[in-house]
Amino acid sequence: MHRLIHFHTDHKFIHDTLKYNSELLENIIVFIGDADNAIINKLNNLKFEFYIFNESQVDNINNILPHYDGVVIYDLNNVNIQILERITRDKKVFLRLFGYELYKLKLNKFVSRATLRLFKPISLESYSFKNYLKKKVKRLLGIEFSFNYFEQKLLYSKIDAIILINKFEYQALQKYFYLPKFIQLPLTRELPKNLELSNKSNKLIIGNSRNIWNNHLDVFRIIKKSKRFDNYKFNLFFNYGADNDYTEKVRNKANQNSFVLIEDFLDIQEFSRVYNTATALIINSYRQHALGNILTAISSGTKVYLNRRSSTYKWLKHEGFYISEISELPRDIDNNKVRQTQKEFQHNANCYNQLKENYTQLDFIANVKAILEQE
User: Fold this and answer.
1) What SUPFAM superfamilies does the record tag this protein with (predicted)?
2) Same domain assignment for residues 364 and 353
3) Are residues 364 and 350 part of one domain?
4) pLDDT category, 199, cuts 50, 70, 90?
5) What pTM did the predictor assign?
6) Residue 74 placed within a domain
7) In a domain, 281, yes or no
8) Beta strand pairing call for 280-283 and 25-32
């Protein structure tokens, strides 16, 4: 039996450890951060042995690492980079990549122009005239965001495998970055066999958080192209992510349009209720993003609108799902076609179940085991 240690810094993804649950693997969790009772209950419910450290205790991890064959790191943030630097080459390293640390290096490729102008403004108030012109020219030429490829490769060369949901995101990132071997993560969510869609209201969900990847202002502009958008209620999930000038502008614009901001964190029952009554979900991301929300929408019979530039859109369309492109939204609102039919829900459910059957948790465990046994 191989021993794996999992390093988590975000409680939202602790449950992902269950994908490694197997008689072939012994799994131990280390949570780094402030753990309240809710987080401790989450850890207890997983039935894995676990440790809790705060960020100042990272050095203590040196005493634990020698006892394990492999390390799974969830997100390559500053704390996890410190851990990665401590791992000896005889250990196999897996990175569950959430992507922010890479996408931000090529920000202009993964957010809209409107979002970029708000998030990274270039103004004479902030720069001298000479620097203002330089920055403007770089932005116009698309060379504003550059990074040291060799440093990025050096860091990621310490990793044996990148774990992602699908190869489309892997290929999208590979255009710009060095990535180690790809391992696909299995889909494990159970979809309902039958679903009653009559309780759907004229409510649409915009985005999944305050994060800039949602390109909120572009969604507002697209919605207002419709002549009948006033017939619908729009809810924005706005309950996590950084608060900054971008979020303040989005908040003001949302309030001006009578869009409802959901700023309190919802428990799983409340979260599910929102989707069970929502007609559609709109995710205007240019990158793989909010996949948990998208899969929740699919399982709830909620129509999904994505940006055609995103790897998630390309992946789901390739697999045969009924997914709408965000530019279709005004026409669908005007023609009352925002609601998903029972037939469309069943089709998407069949596509999902086929994906789940084609690549199972056993396949995933076999791929992890193969890396662990490599010389």
Assistant:
1) UDP-Glycosyltransferase/glycogen phosphorylase
2) no
3) no
4) confident
5) 0.93
6) yes
7) yes
8) unpaired
Cα(first)–Cα(last) distance of the chain, in Å?
17
**Would you say residue 285 lies in a domain?**
yes
Among residues 18, 10, 124, 20, the alpha carbon closest in space to that of 74 is found at: 10
AA identity, residue 126: S
In this structure, the answer to whether residues 166 and 23 fall within a common structural domain is yes
Tokens, residue 275: 């989707």
Token couple for 341: 């039919």
Look at residue 207 and give its three-state secondary structure: coil
- Domains in the chain, number: 3
Q: What's 112's DSSP letter?
A: -
Quick one: which H or E segment has residue 71? strand 70-74
**Which residue range forms the structural domain that includes residue 109?**
104-141
* The pairing of beta strand 2-8 with beta strand 280-283: unpaired
Q: Are 259 and 235 in contact (CB under 8 A)?
A: yes
- Distance, CA of 159 to CA of 152 (rounded, Å): 12
Report the sign of the C-alpha dihedral through residues 33, 36, 39, 44, in that order: positive
Q: How far apart are alpha carbons 29 and 222 in whole angstroms? A: 44
327-356, pLDDT tens digit by residue?
999 999 999 999 999 999 999 999 999 999
